[in-house]
Amino acid sequence: MSIEYLGLDSINGPLVVIEGVQDAAYDEIVEFSVHRTEQKLGRIIEVYEDKAIIQVFEDTTNMSLENTHTKLTGHSMELPLAPEMLGRTFDGIGRPIDGLGELNYVSKRDINGDPLNPVRREFPRNFIQTGLSAIDALTTLIRGQKLPIFSGNGLPHDKLAAQIVRQANLGKENNEDFGIVFAAMGVKHDVADFFRRTFEESGVIDHVTMFLNLADDPVVERLITPKVALTAAEFLAYDLGKHILVILTDMTSYCEALREVSSSKQEIPSRKGYPGYLYSDLASMYERAGIVDGKPGSVTQIPILTMPNDDITHPIPDLTGYITEGQIVLDRTLAGKSVYPPINILPSLSRLMKGGIGEKYTREDHQAVADQLFASYSKVNDARSLASVIGEDELSDTDKRYLSFGEKMENGFIGQELDENRTILETLNLAWDMLHILPREELNRIDTKLLDKYFDEDR
């Protein structure tokens, strides 16, 4: 039997305190009735004897200490789930905002997810094609992987996220089993409208589930949005057998919200003022990606985060790098050259790509071509540095070829149009076009048999 309490003891920003409660539990959902006219939701984040500290999901400015009714629901936050979630748009805590009415849900599930035995995880195999050469060839996204994008303020990560949503597919396989869950945290209204409009105009909205937490929405709601999105993804993947790609943008907004709420709770801060449990909190979400033995489907994650001051050693990208299986790094210098997407391939990597590329998955030459492109592009900076000292005319013929190779790589391979969708075979063929700029003797990362098959010295 639920008990309703009248009055609050204190209000501090998004946190309220109520004393004299019975049987309150951590993470329990609380319903508030403000002046009997407005309903709000909250979550218990701390319990001490008969005192409960509650995080309110909405604004607390109109809540009064005397006339607020509080009801403990007896359960943690749950998300209604239904197959019809694909094609729908929700707010940050899972309420429909697309004007299509409520879901006829088949079940409700705790947004914190179920504990997963690590030995039940299967090794990620098969790649997801994004249509972007720099990703598909060099930092291949594998089903069940978590591969973050490290960006910075002002860089086109929103455009990149939208393009991945439009173009991502399973390659040669049946794409009816493919879906995308897109969650945006703390985005401005014009950015949210850009995502909506892009997905609708491109015709992909039918296989996209969107969760939007706007910049003027309550900060606390941001802490719920990624968990709601991942709960929907797990249902679509493990219950309905779909391969789900989850895109979370911007995880920096999530971490800033976590720091703000932690400060309101007067917790002892750690690095840069973030709470000491930032690592475990991020891990609790990132580790919800994968393939589970005995269950159909898969969950793949692309978290996007903006590095404060482009600092890759900042706690958010630093901890994210420990948890995830690689990273895609956007570069401000490339963006200044009008290269889109401005992916710096040298610090970018995908630790799981070897398990999902090659003869069975993409093409036999994929790994060797990727290794050679990395090795050759790493010499471009040396050639540019030397040219800045002695002048380009004084360079050797080989160094001049490396300069030409770097220019062509950045503008013709890494760079592509916003609506350009390359297949993996087109990408690999284009990679060989890049390598033909260099002398054959410089291609020392590729087996002779592959060179004989794909490298035409007469070109």
UniProtKB/TrEMBL annotation:
UniProt xrefs under Pfam families: ATP-synt_ab (PF00006), ATP-synt_ab_N (PF02874), ATP-synt_VA_C (PF22919)
Gene Ontology molecular-function annotations: ATP binding; proton-transporting ATP synthase activity, rotational mechanism; proton-transporting ATPase activity, rotational mechanism
Domain ATPase F1/V1/A1 complex alpha/beta subunit nucleotide-binding: 131-350
GO terms classed as biological process: proton motive force-driven plasma membrane ATP synthesis
Domain ATPase F1/V1/A1 complex alpha/beta subunit N-terminal: 10-64
Ion transport in keyword set: yes
Residue ranges that the Swiss-Prot or TrEMBL entry lists as coiled coil: none
Keyword field: ATP synthesis, Hydrogen ion transport, Ion transport, Transport
Keyword check for Hydrolase: no
Occurrences of domain ATP synthase A/B type C-terminal (ranges): 356-454
Recorded family membership: Belongs to the ATPase alpha/beta chains family.
Name of this chain's protein: V-type ATP synthase beta chain
Organism of this sequence: Alkalibacterium gilvum
Gene encoding the protein: atpB
